[in-house]
Amino acid sequence: MNLFSEIRGLVLDALAQMQSEGTLPEGLNFDNVAVEPPRDAAHGDMATNAAMVLAKPAKMKPREIADVLAGKLAADDRITNAEVAGPGFLNLRLAPTVWQGVLAAVLEKGTDYGRSTMGHGQKVNVEYVSANPTGPLHVGHTRGAVFGDALASLLAYSGHDVTREYYINDGGAQVDVLARSAYERYREANGLSPEIAEGLYPGDYLIPIGEALKEKYGDSLIDKPESEWLEELRNFATDAMMDLIRDDLKALGVEMDVFFSEKSLYGTGKIEAALKSLSDKGLIYEGVLEPPKGKKPEDWEPREQTLFKSTEHGDDVDRPVKKSDGSWTYFAPDIAYHYDKVTRGFDALIDVFGADHGGYVKRMKAAVSALSDGKVPLDIKLTQLVKLWKNGEPFKMSKRAGNFVTLRDVVDHVGPDVTRFVMLTRKNDASLDFDFDKVLEQSRENPVFYVQYAHARVMSVLRRAAEAGIAADDATLASADLSKNDHPSELTVAKKLAEWPRLVEIAARTNEPHRVAFYLYELAGDFHALWNKGNDETQLRFIQDGDVATSQSKIALARAVSVVISAGLGILGVTPAQEMR
């Protein structure tokens, strides 16, 4: 049940009737006709822009359209008032029975209330985290992991066929550095002093790998030339790091469907195949790039390279895919990887990158546009930095990691539920302050607590109902006399519940899961306000002594709140609280 879609359907029917009567001309496009909450709730329950968007193509004044449309809408039993405002906006007020019917719909459908089919089974690949397998995940990866996972859940909830994917960057020079760093810890395990030279990874997390290498090889690799152990240790250490990363993700509640190895692209013809696809379209050529804008580096010199005509697909400059010495650039395997996604039959691709990957956005979009002939859209979401605070000061770095705060540091301090919710309290492209003290305090200023407290309060109502012998299962509550929920504060909560299906579709359409967290906070606020009013106005309390029918009506409202909160938290990957301690 999407009440806003239903009322929009009513508006469209009225417009079609106006066409049949000759009030409106035929052939108008109604796609941009919207029904949404008004900016100011005092103006009504819903508003439509129909008259405004149709005036110009209909060659009429907006108010001429709005006046007729208002009369037709007011004739429907669901509409108590249709008022034209300003130049032609139409504000609508709905009957209380409409909002009370929302409660029954929530209780009948459970957490499927708000679930959408808008995705029509479209196959979407969401790639996120994709950290280099050179150490534990840090706090920046944590935000990307939470954002990507919540987005994947949101898309699945809205009817998409979602694949969660991790791209293992195991084909570059950084894994050689990992192997050399692990070798020093192997030497340490054999009683020698490790030589952690500049550029190697200093974290203590490599100590267990060194010990595992000793167990496997004894001291047989000591003093052997690098050429004899580099590849073996690279594979061994990479596998160990991926096991560590999988454990980190599991601690956060993240499970991937696919782990794709960059290394699998090399020596298999996949990079060549991707570039041939571009070459066949006339998008690969040999050329010399212009020097960088601004001050030219002293060591810059023009070199002929193999270039991709990315400018033909929206990029600022063409991009090299092969260096003058014949080796691949970093961009080449990225093209091949996305070509693989396209050939796997995905209808849309989403990449979640860290803030430092902003320069990749245009080139990757250009590559996917070229590879798919514009048929597969790529949306790239950048997650901005997270600043950690504790005791009013920046949180210190992790010794175990060597030079950064790990995902485990965060989860061990506050738990996965708090971590996930807080990471979604800002839009992905805005920086986020994560204060370890504030995210655990019990106040309205802490959105995690505020939402969880609302759910826990409903659970306490249900427990009290059971103690009083009041039947409060969802089926019984859905069939209760819900007309008793007629106080403005009760209707405010019901109206907020009615927004949930619409919110889901907007959040999924824009790939913005933070909207769910924002909505839950607002819903919790409306519920807490109602609860607090009940302290002074006894008729608003959820359990009315000696009046089972009224109690069930009030409990139905509270239970509907918990159902929607549970559905929203499920999308965010957070477990609803049964009680607060």
Automatic annotation (TrEMBL):
Belongs to the class-I aminoacyl-tRNA synthetase family. It comes from Ruegeria profundi. Keywords: Aminoacyl-tRNA synthetase, ATP-binding, Cytoplasm, Ligase, Nucleotide-binding, Protein biosynthesis. This is Arginine--tRNA ligase. Pfam families: Arg_tRNA_synt_N, DALR_1, tRNA-synt_1d. InterPro entries: aa-tRNA-synth_I_CS, Arg-tRNA-ligase, Arg-tRNA-synth_N, Arg-tRNA-synth_N_sf, ArgRS_core, DALR_anticod-bd, Rossmann-like_a/b/a_fold, tRNAsynth_Ia_anticodon-bd. Residues 5-94 form the Arginyl tRNA synthetase N-terminal domain. The keyword ATP-binding applies. Its EC number is 6.1.1.19. It catalyses: tRNA(Arg) + L-arginine + ATP = L-arginyl-tRNA(Arg) + AMP + diphosphate. Monomer. A motif ('HIGH' region) lies at residues 131-141. Residues 451-580 form the DALR anticodon binding domain. GO terms for biological process: arginyl-tRNA aminoacylation. The lineage of its organism: Bacteria, Pseudomonadati, Pseudomonadota, Alphaproteobacteria, Rhodobacterales. It is found in: Cytoplasm. One of its GO terms (cellular component) is cytoplasm. Transmembrane segments: none annotated.
